[in-house]
Amino acid sequence: MYACTLNDEDSLEHSLFRRLWNISRKEVAKLAGVSEATVSRVLNNVGPMKEKTRERVLKAAAELGYVPSALAQQFARRRSGNVGVILPAVPKVHLFSTYYFSEILSGIGETAKRCGYDLLLIFREPEGARDYAKLFRMQKIDACIVLGSRDVPEERAALAELKAGGHPFCLVNQRYDDERYETVDADHLAGSREAVRHLLAQGKRKVAFVNGPEEYSNSADRLEGYLAALAEAGVEREDERIFAGNYSRKSGYELAGTIAERIRGGGIDAVFAANDRMAIGLLQGLRERGIEAGDHYALVGYDDSDGSRITSPRLSTVAVPFYEMGRMAAARLLEPELGDSALQDGGTMLPVSFIRRETS
Amino acid sequence: MYACTLNDEDSLEHSLFRRLWNISRKEVAKLAGVSEATVSRVLNNVGPMKEKTRERVLKAAAELGYVPSALAQQFARRRSGNVGVILPAVPKVHLFSTYYFSEILSGIGETAKRCGYDLLLIFREPEGARDYAKLFRMQKIDACIVLGSRDVPEERAALAELKAGGHPFCLVNQRYDDERYETVDADHLAGSREAVRHLLAQGKRKVAFVNGPEEYSNSADRLEGYLAALAEAGVEREDERIFAGNYSRKSGYELAGTIAERIRGGGIDAVFAANDRMAIGLLQGLRERGIEAGDHYALVGYDDSDGSRITSPRLSTVAVPFYEMGRMAAARLLEPELGDSALQDGGTMLPVSFIRRETS
DNA sequence: TCATTTAATGTACACGCGTACATTATGGCA
DNA sequence: TGCCATAATGTACGCGTGTACATTAAATGA
Fold it and tell me: Which residues form the HTH lacI-type domain (chains A, B) (predicted)?
């Protein structure tokens, strides 16, 4: 039918080699009979162009199955198109709810995708070597979101370096009030106050508090909320009722011995734990000692994690909009114009809500 | 002391602009008094070089705070250095244990970091548009690991295209036995058989099975293991004892009505659920009907998730080495020479182990 | 019709690195 | 000393885009 001309050679090339030799702008340009620049302009929709040309180029691109090389684009644009997400070192993940991270990560992913960014996962080095700024200098990422940040010297140094370098980043669930970093947090003070108010409203007067490590601003917020609620109700602060865990279930479990005695002795009639995991550990530890949540004492956790729904009795807790927080953190970095309008400025605080279940 | 020469201008440049204008190989070369190629060779440790030169270059690089541009490197090497990790669409995540993903992800991350790769997170599109191969054609990733794969036509097509394109990928926890894809799975047949054997050994003879959707090879494996154990014990298969859930807690919960009746009627004396979430949902649903696990019936879950430890009674289950599976999947792709030696060839199956707790 | 603006396209180069190849230093050996 | 093999380094270019600038085509106005 057709003579074996150059055209046929071309189509042979297309059908056979398109998967072998990556075809580039050049081939598309040749097929469409235009210059490479025109191809580029059509695909990026920049500058004026004749509709006819546009169609020819798009057709040629489709025919060749052309896909621009992200590598070359990134290089030419000097942007990686990646948002780095910094996660706690592997073993630390288990201190937090994994639920916590998957929710936040999903939220970040949603916004990032919408803005044309990809997510680069970065596990924090266990041994203090946290050179976040290097990731920017290497141009691996254009922005980054820091999860599980703790107020320790190495972390402060790393963040200060980011700031000094002018690198866009956003903290989630951790504030450095003296630093004015971009931050998305939830109103843990209000959440804790609410939780403790609830306990007080039940007539409890000896409310213990199991907090997490003080390197997390979350912990300070919760303490503040706890104290505020007590003060409101005219209940005196009692330091013996304040305990320190590390947000792991185990740490809650291990406090059960001490707390059991106090409950038996009438020194404690309710417990507010700074997260569900510790609350659950405590619940289990106390149960082993014959002390039942919701019966011998009231218990409230924090996070509304999956776990809070599967204990029995079900755990009262405070719901935190992790997914929203992730979305917002990403939006702050990737679409700052929208971000500002969406929040009352400086209002990085998302609302939380107390959820009463069976342990209180 | 020093005259204001070009040298001083240079050091001014270093101290002030090193963070503003990204310095490149060129500046290092000039400062070290060598060619750019030599800088490159020193930094990549390629070819012979004089120790003296090496030191000069490294010193210059350090002095300038030089960091190679990952973008340019990737472009020149035509490798992104990224491993794509494909995750279920956001809403789906909740069907799986988030524990499951964070474990596997950590395992992948460990190996990837060791091999000098980064992790690019990719959420599967909800609407069937899963063009995995495009990620390779765009050169966004050099390899990919597919999590939560389901045997549906779109998925098969996407995987077939990957294979046809010669793109390295590895499935985790899902097999396509007719396709010979690179896969890392655990021995769910053995795990399920073990779990059911245990129930039978307790004298149970009417063991129900709550399975997940059949698009997951995991589900088929578990069914097979369940049936194998029954057959061994000479217990006849009874289709009315086989139920279909979707791996969510809710789906287990919703089966409670039917199963409660059967337990009361003596038609069921034990339940093996294909994952912990369904087991927990069922446990809760039955409890609401006054039927207690470990008491009125025996219950075994699957996954050894966090949740299995916090129910009461604690859930008997089957532990799966998710972290190891992640490590191995990554190793398969990134260090195939080691991977092959580590496993008996074709032996993609990792062992699982039954864990007896209080519900059985 | 021609001059002048504006639309549409082409030409040329930078981006920062890796690396093939050319070139120059070095050392061994006769 | 001269020759050769090899070590060490330099030169030059490609990788596939984006885009500034130059050029040409079309449109507008007198």
Answer: 23-77
CATH code for position B206: 3.40.50.2300
Percentage of chain A beyond pLDDT 70 is: 89
Q: Are B106 and B18 within one domain?
A: no
Q: How far is the CA of A7 from the C1' of C23 (A)?
A: 44
Mean of the per-residue pLDDT values of chain B: 90
* Of the candidate ranges A29-43, A48-62, A125-139, B128-142, the one whose mean pLDDT is the lowest: A125-139
Instruction: Determine the distance between B48 (CA) and C30 (C1') in angstroms.
Output: 27
Q: Please check whether residue B207 is in contact with residue B197, taking contact to mean a CB–CB distance below 8 angstroms.
A: no
Structural domain span for residue B21 = 6-68
pLDDT band at residue B130 under the 50/70/90 scheme: confident
What confidence tens digit (pLDDT) does each residue in B248-269 have? 999 999 999 999 999 999 999 9
Q: CA-CA distance, B121 to B144, in Å (whole number)? A: 10
Tens of pLDDT, residues A80-91: 999 999 998 766
Residue A333 and residue A310 share a domain: no
**B108 contacts: CB under 8 Å, gap ≥ 6:** B83, B85, B119, B145, B326, B327, B329, B330
Q: How far apart are CA B343 and CA B355, in angstroms?
A: 25
Location of structure tokens 């370098």:
A165
What mean pLDDT is predicted for residues A44-69?
A: 96
Rounded Cα–Cα distance for residues A87 and A82 (Å): 15
**What is the per-residue pLDDT for A137?**
96
CA distance B43 to B55: 11
Same domain, yes or no: B204 and B307: yes
The CA distances from residue B236 to A118, A124, A127, B240, in Å, are: 52, 53, 57, 12
Residue closest to B331 by CA, chosen among B350, B318, B312: B350
B138 → closest Cβ in A70, A287, A309: A70
Give all strands of the β-sheet with A298-300 in edge-to-edge order: A242-244, A207-211, A270-273, A298-300
Q: Tell me the pLDDT band of B102, cut-offs 50, 70 and 90.
A: confident
CA dist A9 and A267 (Å) reads 89
Angle between helices A36-44 and A51-64 (to 10 degrees): 90
Q: Are residues A302 and A203 in the same domain?
A: yes
CB pairs under 8 A between A and B: 127
Q: Where are the alpha helices (H) located in chain A, listed in sequence order?
A: 6-17, 25-32, 36-44, 51-64, 70-77, 90-93, 98-114, 132-137, 153-164, 188-201, 217-232, 249-254, 256-264, 276-288, 322-334, 336-342
**Minimal Cα distance from B253: which residue of A?**
A310
pLDDT value at B33 more than 60 = yes
Q: Give the distance, in angstroms, between residue A290 CA and nucleotide C9 C1'.
A: 84
Beta strands B169-172 and B317-319, pairing class: unpaired
